[in-house]
Amino acid sequence: MKNLLHHTRISIPEKNRIELIAMLNKSLASVTDLYAQLKQAHWNVKGPTFIALHKLFDEVAERVEDQVDEVAERITSLGGTALGTLQEAVKNTELRPYPVNIFTATEHLEHLTHNMAILGELVRKNIKKSEEFGDMATNDLYIDIVRTLDKDLWFLEAQLQK
Fold first, then answer.
1. Considering its fold, how many domains does the chain have in total?
2. ∠ CA 134-138-139, rounded to 5°
3. Three-state helix/strand/coil letters over 21-57
4. Cross-strand bridge partners of residue 46
5. Which domain holds residue 132?
6. What does the alpha-carbon distance between residue 66 and residue 72 come to, in Å, rounded to a whole number?
7. Nearest to 59 by CA among 6, 112, 16, 123
8. For position 3, what pLDDT does the model report?
9. Packing angle between helix 50-77 and helix 105-132, nearest 10 degrees?
10. pTM (whole model) above 0.85
C-alpha cells in the first residue's frame, strides 16, 4: 500500500493514513458494487410496480454514485490511490453477489435491502474506526453516507411492507 501513497501536508500521521486509506478503499469497493447492483435492478425489474421502482432504483443509484465519488476523493485527499476499478470492487466488496436471473420487484428489493443493510453496518464500524484514528473528516463522511443509506433503505423496505 505504501507505494500507492502520495505526499500530502495533511496532519494525520502516515501510519494512520495508511489504515484509513485501506478502510476507505474497502468501502469504495462496496459502494461501487451497490451502485452497480442498483443499476442492475433499475434495468431489469419487471411487474406492475415497474415504473415506480425503475425510477426509485435510479434515484437511489444517483445518491450512491455521489458516495462513490466522495469516498474516492477522500482517499486521494489523504494521499492514497483510489482503487476504483470494477476489478477492485469485485475483489474487495463486502456485499453479497447480486443474481442476474431475478426480475420481480420483491426479488430485487430483498437483495438490495439486504446489501444496503450490510453496507450500513460496515459504515457504522468505520465511523468508530475513523474517530479512533483522529480523522474527523472521514468520520463525517461516513456519518453522511450512513444517514443517506438509512433513508434509502427505508424507501426500499417500505416497498416490501404490507
1. 1
2. 70
3. HHHHHHHHHHHHHHHHHHHHHHHHCECCCHHHHHHHH
4. 104
5. 8-160
6. 10
7. 112
8. 65
9. 20
10. yes
Residue at 110 is within a domain: yes
User: Interhelix angle for 14-44 vs 50-77, to 10°?
Assistant: 160
Q: What is the CATH number of the domain that holds 22?
A: 1.20.1260.10
Bridge partner residues of 104 (DSSP): 46
Domain-located, residue 139: yes
Q: What is the pLDDT of residues 103-133, one digit of tens each?
A: 999 999 999 999 999 999 999 999 999 999 9
Is residue 154 assigned to a domain?
Answer: yes
Identify the band that residue 4 occupies on the pLDDT scale cut at 50, 70 and 90: confident
Three-state SS at 81 = coil
Instruction: Tell me how far apart the alpha carbons of residues 52 and 86 are, in angstroms, rounded to a whole number.
Output: 28
pLDDT of residue 58 exceeding 80, the answer is yes
